What does this fold into?
Amino acid sequence: MNPSELLRIVDAIHRDKNIEKEIVFEGIEAALVSAAKKHYGEDADIVVRINREDGSISGTHNSTPIDPTEMAERIGAQQAKQVMIQKIREAERDALYEEYKELKDQLVSGVIQRYEGGTATVALPNAEAILPRSEQIPGETHHVNERVRAVVYEVRKAGSRVKIVLSRTRPQLVERLFEQEIPEITDGVIEVKALAREPGYRTK
It folds into this structure.
């Protein structure tokens, strides 16, 4: 991987995956360190640095500089690539988790992809979420390709993925809908003090 190619990869990941460049650089460095340890031994003191400006890679093995050509030839490229992909996926998961954690109790819109066993799988703009039967309005039915609005109820990391749970029964759904339909609420002229709701029956 030559320096200019490395910089192009970092820039592409940054734009496509919405991951900070520094996180991508750190992921690649960690991948190269991991691959180098496979070659030099797990107890070896390996340090790898990527120049953020020109993409050049430098490293040391037990404080002795590693020749860049040797690094490229002797450190398994495929191995480094696999670790790099893993690190980038972790960074992508963490970025998605932080994004939807900020959206907790906020209104989102998506399209139902699947409806199995009463649970709907909803495609959001950049993620997949579930709308469990317990969070659906009683008597309401959903269909594939139907657009639905719901609030983000729960967000948690599940292995290499982010589990996003939506709800259409929580009072926050009504509050967010009021905010969209009544400008005075958004402007602070009218304040919603409290909401009580029996989903599908009544709200006050």
In short: The helical segments are 3-17, 21-40, 68-74, 77-102, 171-181, 183-187. The mean pLDDT is 80. The CA atoms of residues 34 and 42 lie 8 Å apart.
